[in-house]
Amino acid sequence: MEEKIFDISFESAEKKYTGWVNPSERLDHDGKPVSFHVALNNIFFGELSLQHCQWNINESRPYQLFEAVGKEIEKYYKLL
Fold it and tell me: How far is the C-alpha of 6 from the C-alpha of 9, rounded, in Å?
């Protein structure tokens, strides 16, 4: 099976974050993953999904931070 995990790196609120994203195997009608398992700074961050053009997460995380992660995923997939 092809490896689909990819690395991300960004700054938010003057703090540097690095991590990785593991896309789900389940795809939407456009052929893109429906959710993304994310780790930041070696800690599980949450499961992100894009619904109605807005990022959602299954953990209690600051909006600014999970939006920044979502933007990194968008860059990788050119979702929007």
Answer: 10
CB contact at 8 A, 44 and 64: no
Residue 80, pLDDT > 60, answer: no
2 phi, psi to nearest 5 deg: -70, 135
Q: Cβ distance 8 to 22 under 8 Å?
A: no
Domain boundaries along the sequence of the chain:
6-77
pLDDT-based confidence at residue 28 (cuts at 50, 70, 90): confident
What's the pTM? 0.88
Q: Compute how many other C-beta atoms are within 10 angstroms of the C-beta atom of residue 16.
A: 9
Half-sphere exposure of 15 (CA within 13 A, CB side): 7
